[in-house]
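Consider what follows.

. . .
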Amino acid sequence: MIILASTFSQSISHILSADQAFSLTKFLVMFLLIFIETAGIITGFIPGDTILTSVGSVAGLHHNLWELFADGVIFGVASLCGDAVNYWFGGFLTQQIGKIPVLKKYLDGGLIDRLAVDFHPKRWLLFVVLGRFLPFIRVAVPLLAHRLGLPFVTYLKMAAFASFLWAFTITAFGYFIGHLAIPHSALIIGLIGLVILLLVGLRSPKLRQAVINLFVRK
């Protein structure tokens, strides 16, 4: 994942900084990457946060707030569409777990099952919003929502809030970095460091349990 994050970031910066003008093709590629990250169920390895930060930094280099706004809207919509597809398509796949060993290994017996045991119904918004900001976990959120019977319309409203909050927050962070002309290599190192810390943290039983405790009945 670390190698992918670095490669994606460099490729995106190269594509978007080739000229100053908007390109429908460029934004379509970025839209599809963010959409597939969540909608693809097992494509959570796509570094969505790195993509948004890189694109936001390009807008910062251009000193163009309209470009930043367009980034936030495009990626917010892409994220929301991915969540909607994951909710239905993921629900279908989880029903086929017993028939597909690969999916069973990937989806069964993990965080979803542990949260599903005693999930607090008043913590849905917190779960959806926080999950959107966490790589890999954001893929599990629509699955759990479908599995626990959260109405699609209710979930979609929460997902819309989370998606646009995530998109504008991360791209704005990238814009700030690009606006200050921070070297791209420093950005890559910083993002890789955050990814490593996150992955190490998620492997800690105490941290995982602390996260679970946020969303279950006491």
